[in-house]
Amino acid sequence: MKKIIAGSLILLGLASGMAQADPRFKEKRHHQEFARVTHVEPIVVQTERRIPRRECWEEDVRYETPAHHRKSYTGPILGGIIGGAIGNELGAGQDNKKVGAVVGAVLGASIGNDISRNSHHRGNNVEYRTETRCNVQHDIEYYERVTGYKVTYRYNGQTYQTRMDHDPGDRIRVRVSVSPVS
């Protein structure tokens, strides 16, 4: 029996030594207390927001549409006849009269064609319509928002700072760790 008791004591001593050497077997040596808050400063960020705003107004818009005329050959024909008569009168001699009449007819036809074309351009229809025009403007709005709090507190004669997402009030919970000095 003495051997069993002695063996048990030896095993118990070895188990106790292993428990102290293995960090899994160390008991936790910390606890929670309260520290006095001495200062709380909000952390503020300025942000901008773009707000679209639509502006509309009435505007008179000019529209030009070509007048619908039938194509007329009166201008070139009349110009050719008048040009041919003038060329015939100005030409001296039999051969020159024929050349002058042909040259006058061609020039007269060209002038008549130009006159006819210009009269079509002046005949365009112009009308005005009132239309609504719109544009999007952006108003910029600035605002501030609190993103956290810079907290200063005192514990055991020492001053500490931390950042928190809320205002802790007059006191803050702290974890105190105790371990032996080797």
Number of helices: 3
Estimated radius of gyration: 54 Å
Strand content: 35-45%
- Write down how many β-strands occur, each being a DSSP E stretch of 2 or more residues: 4
Shape: rod-shaped
Mean pLDDT: 77
For the largest beta-sheet, the strand count, sense and barrel status come to:
4 strands, antiparallel
Helix/strand structural class: alpha+beta
The rounded distance between the terminal residues' Cα atoms is 40 Å
H/E order of the elements? Answer: HEHHEEE
Could you estimate the helical fraction of the residues in percent? 25-40%
Q: Indicate the low-confidence ranges by residue numbers.
A: none
| Spatial arrangement of strands, main beta sheet | 3-2-1-4
Features:
4 strands; four-stranded antiparallel beta sheet; rod-shaped; 3 helices; alpha+beta; 182 residues
Write the layout of secondary structure elements.
Blueprint: H1 2-21, E1 30-65, H2 74-90, H3 94-122, E2 125-155, E3 158-164, E4 171-177
Antiparallel strand pairs: 1-2, 1-4, 2-3
Helix pairs in contact: 2-3
What does this structure look like?
- The chain is an alpha+beta fold and 182 residues long.
- The radius of gyration is 54 Å and the shape is rod-shaped.
- A four-stranded antiparallel sheet has the order 3-2-1-4, with no helix packed on it.
- It has helices at 2-21, 74-90, 94-122, and strands at residues 30-65, 125-155, 158-164, 171-177.
- It starts with a helix and ends in a 5-residue tail after the last strand.
- Helix 2 (74-90) packs antiparallel against helix 3 (94-122).
- It is 36% helix and 45% strand.
